Description:
Organism: Paenibacillus rhizosphaerae
Number of domains: 1
EC number: 2.5.1.129
Strand order of the largest sheet: 3-2-1-4-5-6
Largest sheet: 6 strands, parallel
Protein name: Flavin prenyltransferase UbiX
Enzyme class: transferase
Keywords: Flavoprotein, FMN, Prenyltransferase, Transferase
CATH superfamily: Flavin prenyltransferase-like
Order of helices and strands: HEHEHHEEHHEHEHH
Amino acid sequence: xxxxxxxxxxxxxxxxxxxxxxxxxxxxxxxLKQGYDVHIVVSNAGWRVLGEELGWKTAQRELVLSEKFxxxxxxxxxxxxxxxxxxxxxxxxxxEGMVIAPCSMGTLSAVANGSSDxxxxxxxxxxxxxxxxxxxxxxxxxxxxxxxxxxxxxxRLGVKMIPAMPAxxxxxxxxxxxxxxxxxKVLDMMRIEHELFRxxxxxxxxxxxxxxxxTKE
Length: 217
């Protein structure tokens, strides 16, 4: 990649083996559609979950990523999780930040304790040391004290936690609605505009006001 390409708007997206791989997939899709470049890292367990939950054929990983994410304005760059020498392993390589969605408790623990033994955790460590946004989407239940302590530790370091907790005030009708809500909350934290879900409008009062406005028009 040339120095000019490095200056384009780009994010790192990590997908771990926690349930909910669709969150990372949908986030990647939205970013590419908006013209962002995405550097994607998938853990070995993450690949298994992509197969189990989404039915992906993961034997040829780069090929399946090209099939799933091709044809968008943004460019996708795949980095094997074992490639500790990839561009995103260095703080000198410029990206906007990183999102791990979903984030397993194992990965969260490694990030919280500075264990950079693969590209996923190394890239997250780079975000911390360079002061760039790091957003985690933890997906586990129930949570025990170690999980919570690791989350608190990272939150105190400025890492943003957006647990996979869908809302229902916007009256979702499909699973896709719930997925888009979660991804939309992540995009809000990334300061990226979107229209993935209807925002809170004051409840019944807001709806009545909107109806009245529509009548006047």
